[in-house]
Amino acid sequence: MSRRRATIAKRLLEAQRTAAMLTTFNEVDMTAILDLRSRRQETFTKQHGVRLGFMSFFTKAVVGALKAFPMLNAEIQGEEVLLKHYYDIGIAVATDKGLVVPVLRNADRLSFAEIEREIASLAEKARTNSLSLSDLQGGTFSITNGGVFGSLLSTPILNTPQVGILGMHKIQTRPVAVDDEKMENRPMMYVALTYDHRIVDGKEAVSFLVKVKELLEDPESLLLEG
Questions:
Q1: 85, 88, 196, 201: which one is catalytic?
Q2: Does the first or last residue of the chain, that is N or C, have fewer Cβ atoms within 10 Å of its Cβ?
Q3: How confident is the model over 169-211, as pLDDT tens digits?
Q4: Could you write out the DSSP letters of every residue in the chain?
Q5: CA distances in angstroms from 97 to 4, 92, 180, listed in the order given
Q6: How far is CA 152 from CA 68, 148, 166, 172, 195, in A?
Q7: Annotated catalytic, 35?
């Protein structure tokens, strides 16, 4: 094993050994986000010099949900719970040498463009092996996107000591019941939330993921909630 792979292996095994991990699932209708990106992409790119991707929407939705369910933004220290009133979101990045999770600082204070720009910068640093230790420390919650590689569904592992991680997946066109009589083909994405059941109950975890779904399906609400 390389030094990085050995470190990754140690941390993942430690997470499985110390946390009571459980995963809950939901699905998101991506119609509104895809429509918004289609209409705004050209203007957004010209104005900000960066493309409007999916990660800014998911980051904003996660921040909004964390504000509503703060226990997902906590960590366990001994027999105490440390609630964090800041939002440093880890963004998992796959590199040739292994997975790293650089941290997007103060995500609640960033605009869509700032989020996209910062994520692009962190991803480039990850690919060129130039991340500093400070880039990787102190996240409060993480997001991982297996969909870019074609994953339809997965159960992400916690990035301890964090107690929550959101898994994004492939957008797939599927028939969806719009009402009792009508079906439509919609771009759907399964999302997964792995959480530490020691301090997060099922009701809270499910409600958190429903909140993420609601915010993503109504992108304009992200300007208010995120």
A1: 201
A2: N
A3: 999 999 999 888 999 999 999 999 999 999 999 999 999 999 9
A4: --HHHHHHHHHHHHHHHHS-EEEEEEEEE-HHHHHHHHHHHHHHHHHHSS---SHHHHHHHHHHHHHHSGGGGEEEETTEEEE--S--EEE-EEETTEEE--EETTGGG--HHHHHHHHHHHHHHHHTT---HHHHS--SEEEEEGGGGT-S---PPP-TT-SEEEEE--EEEEEEE-SSS-EEEEEEEEEEEEEETTT--HHHHHHHHHHHHHHHHSGGGHHHH-
A5: 7, 13, 49
A6: 27, 10, 14, 8, 20
A7: no
Q: What percent of the chain has pLDDT over 70?
A: 99
Write b or e for each residue in 25-40: b if 16 or more Cβ atoms lie within 10 A of its Cβ, otherwise e: eebbbbeebeeebeee
Q: Do the beta carbons of residue 115 and residue 60 sit within 8 Å?
A: yes
Mark whether 197 is an active-site residue: yes
The single residue of 48, 108, 197, 218 carrying the catalytic annotation is 197
What pLDDT does 92 receive? Answer: 94
Cα 206 to chain center, whole Å?
A: 15
Check pLDDT > 90 for residue 97: no
Region 21-40: mean pLDDT is 97
Q: What is the mean pLDDT of residues 28-51?
A: 96
Whole-model pTM?
0.94
